[in-house]
Amino acid sequence: MRIDTIRAAETRPTTVRHDDALISAKGVSLVLSRQLILQNIDLSVPKGSFVSLIGPSGCGKSTLLKLMAGLLQPTEGSVSIAGLPPVEAARKRMIGLVFQEANLLPWKNAVDNASMLLSIADRSLSRAELRARGQEMLELVGLGDSAHKQPHELSGGMRQRVAIARALALDPAVLLMDEPFGALDAITRDSMGQSLLDIWQRTGKTIVLVTHSIDEAIHLSRHVHVLGIKPGRITESLDIDLPYPRDLSLTEEPEFVRLVVQLRTMLRESHQPGASS
Ligand SMILES: Nc1ncnc2c1ncn2[C@@H]1O[C@H](COP(=O)(O)OP(=O)(O)OP(=O)(O)O)[C@@H](O)[C@H]1O
């Protein structure tokens, strides 16, 4: 695919402020296997913010997250984290990743799983130091009492909490989360969302969350970006001006319901291939 084909593509109408951004994507397009996957993404994630990406299946949300993590390189444009290329930011332990599957090591207990990435990143730490850090992180995610449990003794939600603890143990500036609660039942999902909000407010991390849930996106985020399909591009951005701290009772408020309707309408439009914003 020719780059000028990408350039000729539609641009997002809104102005993106990059000056206070911790994560910044400027004019990002990505071609994989000769297909335009992402087109002209302009995105700014302010430091300390909670941002969600939502859009139809296959629109490129995970791919965009991989670009932010430095796991893929854009064909056109640039991505930066605190002014650094993501690969460099990852090397400096500035990026924590959480996926839909917890992927814990089955032969290690919760506390050793929580400190596992840290043990690789910092070989100078003693076993006691790693354990202490793992325990601290387990307490942060509400699993302080489960340190010695093996993964098979933990529920799906508990395993995801360990995965979040494992990412946080590196003390990253940025937490990139790809459908972290997608495999959980609705009630566990609600409680995980609430825990994530608490963790976010206590740690001040910058969080980017990929989700399919409209309610989750509105409940948790300050900003929601809607991606359209074929090619993946940002079609709409919505600020969620609801006050924090937020709890689940918020979901019954008229303003929350209004935002759900607004976001659902945006999402419906984003399902149209090549739909303009
Ligand atoms: N390595 C690759 N080579 C070619 N195409 C790819 C590659 N990785 C992803 N794609 C394509 O990129 C598009 C976006 O995929 P991606 O997984 O980012 O979508 P998504 O929005 O996260 O989907 P879902 O919500 O279903 O998880 C899809 O059409 C996918 O087939």
UniProtKB/TrEMBL annotation:
Residue ranges constituting the ABC transporter domain according to the UniProt record: 16-256
What are the UniProt keywords, alphabetically?
A: ATP-binding, Nucleotide-binding, Transport
Q: Give the family from UniProt.
A: Belongs to the ABC transporter superfamily.
Classification lineage: Bacteria, Pseudomonadati, Pseudomonadota, Alphaproteobacteria, Hyphomicrobiales
Domain of life of the native organism: Bacteria
What is an example of a Pfam family matching this protein?
A: ABC_tran
Q: Which CDD domains match?
A: ABC_NrtD_SsuB_transporters
Q: Supply the name of the protein.
A: ABC transporter ATP-binding protein
Molecular-function annotations in GO: ATP binding; ATP hydrolysis activity
